[in-house]
Amino acid sequence: MTAIGAGSGSGIGTTLVTGATGTTGSRTAAQLTAAGHPARAAGRKAAPVAGAEPVRFDWYDPGTHAAALDGVDRVYVIPPVGDPAPAAVVLPFLRRARAAGVRRAVLLSASSIPEGGPAVGQVHRALPVIFDEWAVLRPSWFMQNFTGDHLHATSIRTEGLIRTAAGTGRVGFVDADDIAAVAVQALTEDRAPDTDLVLTGPEALSYDDIATVITEVTGHPVAHRPLSYEEMRDRLATQMPEEFAAMLAGMDRAVAEGAEDRVTDSVQRLTGRPAGSFRALVERELRLLG
Q: InterPro entries given for it (predicted)?
């Protein structure tokens, strides 16, 4: 299958990548520059990312926005992490971006948040009103949650355990590299998707399945320990605000009820190649238990 817009996007202007040091932002900036597309890596510390031009950017400091937008004609929008109402800062920025000449915006949301839903769902609703060219990426849970700095990864390394309130529910875990690849296509192809895209990996896996794959590939025993919603909420509340802990535990409960048990072909359709599997990711990142 040929990727949508394959070979297109020649002569595009600079893409501003917000959250450029994060999981998908860093990968998107790197893939853009590797493909020869000019990119500006926006972050609070203006750190260089894989050849992208660094620029200081803080969602909560409008004084940093004009310089970040100078000469930009498209933007990858990663809302501020942990903000329960990101529309309050993201929408004014997007309106300013449009007035400054930005033609296309690609927003990172989540599979669990529909248009008009809470938090970033409000930004999703407004995006096509502000921009004629747009896309909303709604990835499922990141595979990198088990290999990076996430609570699951830490627990795997220190205890050989994954604790969730998801029961036997399954999730179409997706590789962040694939999310970035879709973002690059949505940003650079001649025609914007002008829709939202639910992104998953090639199969839906339970947390028991995840533990089994890690055990088989690494040789280190890992087990899934199911918790109740209340146990998960209270455990998380020792490490974050109670409201956020309750939301995350609630997302696990939704998984247990089947909310994320789905697989889409969005990665294949946008990039022209199959989504990567979790086993392939673990084989690639054997250091996850190091």
A: Ergot_Alk_Oxidoreductase, NAD(P)-bd_dom
Q: Which residues pair with 196 in a beta bridge?
A: 136
What is the spatial distance between Cα 258 and Cα 254, in angstroms, rounded to a whole number? 6
Tokens 């919603």 identify what position? 229
Domain total in the chain: 1
CB neighbour class for 263 (10 Å; exposed up to 12, middle 13-18, buried from 19): middle
User: Would you report the helix, strand and coil content of the chain in percent, each value rounded to 5?
Assistant: 40, 20, 40
Instruction: State the DSSP H helix or E strand holding residue 89, giving kind and residue range, or none if neither.
Output: helix 87-99
How far is Cα 76 from Cα 26, in angstroms, rounded to an integer? 11
State in Å, rounded, how far the first CA of the chain is from the last one: 38
| Dist. CA 27–CA 22, nearest whole Å | 8
pTM: 0.93
* DSSP secondary structure letters along 125-141: HHHHHH-SEEEEEEE-S
What tens digit of pLDDT does each residue of 220-267 get?
Answer: 999 999 999 999 999 999 988 888 889 889 999 999 999 999 999 999
Could you report the per-residue pLDDT of 98-145, keeping only the tens digit for each? 999 999 999 999 999 999 998 899 999 999 999 999 999 999 999 999
Q: Please report, for the domain that includes residue 86, its CATH number.
A: 3.40.50.720
Whether 188 contacts 35, CB under 8 Å: yes
